[in-house]
Amino acid sequence: MKGNIYIYIFVAFAVSYLIRVLPLTLIRKPIKNVFIRSFLYYVPYVTLSVMTFPAIVQATSSQLAGLAALVVGVILAFLGAGLFPVSIACCLVAFLAQWLGNLL
Amino acid sequence: MYARDCSGGEAVPKRPKEVAEWSESGTTKSPQAVESRNMKNKSAFFNGLAAGLPIGLGYFAVSFSLGIVARRAGLTPFQGFLASFLELASAGEYALFTSIEQLVTYIEVALITFVVNARYLLMSCALSQRFSSDTPFFHRFFVGFGITDEIFGVSIAQQGALNPFYTYGVMAVAVPLWSIGTSLGIIAGNMLPGMAVDALSVALYGMFLAIIIPPAKKNMTIAVAVLVSFALSWGASVLPLVKNLSGGNRTIILTVAISAVLAYLKPVEREESVS
Question: Which of residues 68-127 of B touch A (CB under 8 A)?
Fold first, then answer.
């Protein structure tokens, strides 16, 4: 379907704003249901993982460059580097790997 | 962190009823009280600005690479600015832009936005327990607007009741940098050589890794969740039939399925730190 970009943006805004503001304004008591709490607890990790792999490997023209960025990113994040350093390091590694790949 | 915040509502002392009403209605009586409150709000705002700067710089780099995705989906720099300003979510916008690129329906966009941003429900719940009863109600609408992993993280880390002006300070730096970064990514993405664009588009995944790996290191279940998600996501991208689904649909299905199974097998009784 070819939609209107402004409507897409509005839909994304409306849904994400309601998600953020409804609990804050409506739910005065804590969520008690263990299943829902556990589900929401796992969602960020699962969804970010699903979106990261294999997409990171396919983002660059050479899969090896993406793989190198993934490995370096995981190691740096494991060692405790923040969002910004990990992002930049992944970029540099991907760039260098592609550049080296072109030389060879 | 959540369980304490979500269930610890009673920890915030309830102010006497008349004090709450006095503040809510805004009909202030004592000039000294007003001045002291203004001073507190001002200093909270400046503290927020200071915390917002490193967050904003990180946002800028990431939203620049999001801009490259947005350009691929055909967004103009203004549309990119608008989308970033209004949605304010890296994973959510990535899903939005790839959905636009894949020409999915509005319903699908609503669905994936809900799934990808569902974690903000929990954050919103946690923050709702941190509002002092004498904070005017309308602040909840504006603080809610600014809930992201990082802005929530620094806000909830404040001692005692949350002063909304602290969150506003963080937002005042981070939101413009986030939005402008997207526009510049759309503009400059055109001028950069393909290799550099490829390299920059990896920044986003780098940020995702920086969010998921540290908790995975501390918590075995999260580590398993990450590995299983990687494996199934890869599987879904090569399996016949399944691989024909759009990337956004695969993300929704996998996220709901994997999280539900984990919640069933390993319910979180007392939640540890999430952010």
Answer: 74-75, 79, 82-83, 86-89, 91-96, 99-100, 103-106, 109-110, 113-125, 127
